[in-house]
Amino acid sequence: MRAAGVSGSRLPRRERIVRGSDIDRVxxxxxxxxxxxxxxxxxxxxxxxxxxxxxxxxKAGNAVRRNRIKRLLREAYRxxxxxxxxxxxxxxxxxxxWRTLTLSEVEPAVRGALGEINETLASG
Length: 124
Description:
The chain is an alpha+beta fold. The chain has one domain: Ribosomal Protein S5, domain 2. About 40% of the residues lie in helices and about 20% in strands. Strands 1-2-4-3 form a 4-stranded mixed β-sheet, with helices on both faces. Helix 2 crosses helix 3 (about 105-124). The chain is globular and about 35 Å long.
């Protein structure tokens, strides 16, 4: 059963950060961006594509709720990834206040964060 508002398309595995060491590198060396109830770290990766990961803490709720937040964030990224000009690794960390949001509420925040990342990484 699919969550309401999430399309049938998925974010391909090659566009996800799956290794813990890659996520650690983004947290240690990446730049921090804050957008409406979400913290985003980004680091230029030198690859031919951008990659995305979500880190949701237990304060956000039980496993079902945390997985829903991850699905919504990945979908919002998938819909707006074309805003990025320079390939980078991105890790999104939602704040606990995002426990009950929908895609229509999450997407503008992700779009704003990606726009800010694009501006910052393109200039330096």
